[in-house]
């Protein structure tokens, strides 16, 4: 994007992420990329919800001193109105309620005037109108896929036109039908806090000056076209595909013992199993998954998670897994709890497949490294994100597997068979490598995603 010229030194972009590693990771990557071209400030809301977030923020601001850190102390929040709400969704609500204070604080603390703000989708409904009322261009960073952005943007229209309280398949005319079975379960409850936020954020998308999406052209050509040509909503703001955003250049976070082990494994032989930073699995399902990995005959690196919040995930592996399991698999698998540096794992030559919940970041990271996926969506946007996985040829998705709290256990036998199917499918491996090449080409100088950011920076320069 060229070195910073005089105009660039007057540009100041302020990023306001919400909470959850799935949000902080892409925001940090965007901050680091933009910091090569203009002044960048990133707001963090403290204290962070999870320990993974606290560690990440500390590591990032120390490795990237060029990104200015602005810490906003969250006021206490009475959650008695929403007692069972996910802690991350509650935090999104707290940030939304504090939006005027956050923006005031940003404006007061900035020595260089703010040229544009980039806000996270869960907090967009409060921040976009406020920033616009102050005359500041406001962009949204959409951390999920273009397919999910289409669904989010059309959902309010669907809700306004439906005649019964129940949800059904959502047909987005001229684009695609999102089947009822793929809709985030929580949206069935109109009173749920997430549902209210989702509808408000879906409406506000149209008011943003532009929307960054962590995807790339060839991965989601159809969804990007439908958004841009007004089929999803007429008058849609510019959609700028910026993915895959490049991982930060800093020392690996989390468990380090996995890497010497991976170094000793043959190329493409290990299946990496991780369901993201906020999906806990029942003990019974964990045990079946363990059996599946064992019977697949493959080597594996498995990060076990039984609780959504890392600070509550304290049970010992020996209490969770069947007696004798760890001993039986010790020669060909690592089973661990905690955090691994997923980027470093996925880029390792030994990794030949990824059993994943198909969280949006995991999908784009697998695409970037050309790693085959076995998608097991568990909830939220994950089924919608599994569509481009299959469509692009990056992976497979057994659609009958359990989904968002269904009282159904997928058997170890079935899991073992699918893991083996993925790991022995040479055509899938070749196709995934091709997807990886396309992804890296999009992000490299001259590529479509790189160019999207160049044009964004140029547009800001033209405005100052
Ligand atoms: N992640 C990681 N190590 C872990 C678990 C997760 O580095 O042990 C990262 C992963 O690379 C991704 C993010 O955390 O960037 C999780 O986001 P995703 O959208 O995949 O899933 P979520 O956790 O939001 O459900
Ligand atoms: N999301 C959205 N609109 C909102 C809030 C969230 O489109 O108002 C997206 C969010 O970015 C994520 C998906 O919906 O991609 C599902 O969110 P989930 O609760 O699974 O958590 P996340 O993956 O964001 O951590």
UniProtKB/TrEMBL annotation:
The protein's enzyme class: transferase
Molecular functions (GO terms): UDP-glucosyltransferase activity
- What PROSITE patterns does this protein map onto? UDPGT
Which CDD domains does the protein's record reference? GT1_Gtf-like
Q: Which keywords has UniProt assigned to this entry?
A: Glycosyltransferase, Transferase
The record's section on InterPro entries has: UDP-glycosyltransf_plant, UDP_glucos_trans, UDP_glycos_trans_CS
Q: EC?
A: 2.4.1.-
SUPFAM superfamilies the UniProt entry points to: UDP-Glycosyltransferase/glycogen phosphorylase
| Entry's family note | Belongs to the UDP-glycosyltransferase family.
- Spell out the protein name for this chain: Glycosyltransferase
């Amino acid at each position: 994007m060229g070195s910073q010229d005089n105009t660039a030194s007057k540009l100041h972009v302020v990023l306001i992420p919400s909470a959850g590693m799935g949000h902080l990771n892409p925001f940090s990557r965007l901050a680091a990329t933009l910091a090569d071209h203009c002044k960048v400030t990133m707001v963090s809301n403290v204290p962070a919800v999870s320990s993974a977030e606290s560690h990440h923020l500390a590591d990032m601001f120390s490795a990237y001193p060029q990104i200015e850190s602005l810490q906003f102390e969250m006021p206490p929040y009475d959650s008695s109105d929403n007692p069972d709400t996910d802690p991350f969704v509650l935090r999104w609500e707290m940030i939304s309620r504090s939006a005027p204070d956050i923006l005031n604080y940003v404006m007061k603390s900035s020595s260089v005037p703010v040229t544009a703000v980039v806000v996270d989708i869960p907090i967009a409904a409060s921040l976009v109108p406020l920033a616009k009322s102050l005359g500041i261009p406001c962009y949204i960073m959409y951390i999920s896929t273009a397919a999910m952005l289409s669904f989010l943007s059309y959902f309010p229209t669907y809700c306004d036109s439906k005649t019964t309280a129940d949800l059904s398949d959502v047909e987005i005319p001229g684009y695609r039908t999102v089947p009822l079975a793929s809709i985030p379960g929580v949206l069935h409850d109109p009173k749920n806090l997430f549902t209210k936020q989702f509808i408000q954020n879906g409406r506000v998308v149209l008011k943003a000056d532009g929307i960054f999406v962590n995807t790339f052209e060839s991965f989601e050509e159809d969804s990007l076209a439908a958004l841009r040509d007004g089929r999803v909503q007429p008058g849609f703001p510019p959609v700028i595909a910026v993915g895959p955003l490049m991982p930060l250049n800093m020392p690996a976070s989390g468990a380090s013992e996995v890497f010497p082990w991976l170094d000793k494994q043959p190329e493409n032989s290990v299946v990496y199993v991780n369901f993201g930073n906020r999906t806990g699995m029942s003990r019974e399902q964990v045990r079946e998954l363990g059996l599946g990995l064992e019977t697949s005959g493959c080597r594996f690196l498995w990060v076990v998670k039984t609780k959504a919040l890392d600070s509550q995930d304290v049970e010992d592996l020996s209490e969770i897994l069947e007696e004798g399991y760890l001993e039986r698999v010790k020669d060909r698998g690592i089973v661990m709890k905690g955090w691994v540096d997923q980027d470093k794992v996925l880029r390792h030559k030994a990794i030949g497949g990824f059993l994943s919940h198909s969280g949006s970041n995991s999908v784009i990271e697998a695409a970037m490294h050309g790693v085959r996926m076995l998608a097991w969506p568990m909830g939220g946007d994950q089924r919608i994100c599994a569509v481009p996985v299959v469509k692009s040829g990056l992976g497979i998705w057994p659609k009958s597997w359990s989904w968002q709290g269904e009282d159904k256990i997928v058997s170890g036998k079935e899991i073992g068979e699918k893991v083996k199917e993925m790991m022995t499918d040479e055509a899938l491996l070749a196709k995934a490598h091709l997807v990886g090449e396309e992804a890296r080409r999009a992000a490299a100088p001259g590529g479509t995603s790189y160019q999207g950011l160049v044009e964004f920076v140029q547009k800001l320069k033209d405005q100052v």
